[in-house]
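Handoff note, outgoing to incoming analyst
You'll be picking up this chain. Sequence as last confirmed:
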Amino acid sequence: WCSFYSDLRTSSTLIDRTGAMSVAGGAGGGGGRRRSVFRPCIDLHDGQVKQIVGGSLKDDGPGPTTNFVADKGAADFAAMYRADGLTGGHIVKLGKGNEDAAKAALSAWPNGLHIGGGVTADNAKSWIEVGAEKIIVTSWLFDDGVFSEERCRRLVDIVGKDRVVLDLSCRRRADRDGWFVTINRWQTTTDLEITQQTLCRLAEFASEFLVHAADVEGLCQGIDEALVERLGEWSPIPCTYAGGAKSIADLELVDKLSGGRVDLTFGSALDIFGGSGVTYSECVAYNRTAAAAGIA
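Most recent structure output, in case you need it:
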């Protein structure tokens, strides 16, 4: 599959965010290509919609560094995303106490959002049944810190590959170059490295990847450009990046670096989350422009 996908990249064939293949420059194509788009998010902590500095989530010590706490509930954000046709967004439950808020959001947009945070083989199907389009999973896939393909296969057997998103949130390590998958709300860095071989192998078990760059998450100081570029080169399935985006220019940058193969989530910089770097209306307009061009 990896060899086949590499051959596709050298032709004009693209894979869109749903996994479908299309050929740029074909009938009606106008020589264009797919553009990266904005993917919305709902981060839940203690039952509230929040924006948190990723590296500050810990089981002990002081609470996380919080950039924003919303007055509106998760269902309000889900309804807004639905009204504006923002597909492929994700809900992430950061710790306990978020079940009711997550279910309310899914009820506001049935089959319109992905859900992650504490997802296992035991509860994955129940999240699909209450309205999740897809389930997002990371930590449960590691058995005592070691990645388990057997658990991946179990999950796929239960909900189907098309319903699975693998969250490969990652950090750089001081002792080795590259990026390594983090689990347990980004507190534990594993030995699973983000490489082309890793992504090709894991694509057998998922329809999409979600990658938070934990080192820059919530800081609004810019994206990890090298990581975005590698994801664009290496991922054989649709991929969404999150972390550090601070202005609408970062959406253009992600599009350029990844060749339109990676989508972007804005967090703390977004005005609906108390930020001043980028407006929600800008993101909606960007996606509509891409859709009108027929290349989103």
